[in-house]
Amino acid sequence: MSATTTSTTMLGTAVQGRMWLRRFLALDSVVTTGNGLAYVAASGPLGRFLGIDAGLLLGLGVGLVAYGVAVGALAARTRPPVLAVRAVVEVNLTWTALSLIALFAWLEPSTAGAVWVPLQAVTVGGFAALQHTALRASRTQPIAD
């Protein structure tokens, strides 16, 4: 394979990586903001259904809406800054870990909550993995001729 072909292939990978990174950030934003809005709008009924304190859900909802909007702003950028994307990945990983710890350490959820908490934790962890992978691909530098 020639240096030009390798360079073009790697450049294509970086461009595709940025495209996928922005898509994964946008999807994270939509899911997170939607989840937050649901917690804010229906913290009482959702709290009863999940067996989780309504006040906790309301606070989490406000935080999730703010975070989701920030992630959406990042996704809207043509080249999301590396440090900001790394922060999103780290926050998502932290959320995943804390959700699972909370499930066993201090929450006493209903059956629905015992299903919901790990399900959303795995989803957020999946976003972190996809974003990390796409970030690495977006930083692939072409080989100089």
Question: What do these coordinates show?
Answer:
The protein is mainly alpha-helical and 145 residues long. α1 runs antiparallel to α3, α2 crosses α3 and α4 packs antiparallel against α5. The N terminus is likely disordered. Helix content is 83%, strand content 0%. The protein is elongated, with a radius of gyration of 19 Å.
Q: In short, what is this structure?
A:
The chain has 145 residues and is mostly helical. 83% of the residues lie in helices and 0% in strands.
User: Helix fraction?
Assistant: over 70%
**Proportion of beta-strand residues:** under 5%
Task: Determine the N-to-C terminus distance.
Answer: 13 Å
- Rg, alpha carbons: 19 Å
Which class best fits the helix and strand makeup?
Answer: mainly alpha
Indicate the multimeric state. single chain
- The number of helices is 5
Specify the overall morphology: elongated
Low-confidence stretches: 1-11
Average the pLDDT over all residues and give the rounded result.
Answer: 90
Described by strand count, sense and barrel closure, the largest sheet is: none
Sequence-ordered SSE layout with sheet pairings:
Elements: H1 3-41, H2 43-50, H3 54-75, H4 82-105, H5 111-138
Helix pairs in contact: 1-3, 1-5, 2-3, 4-5
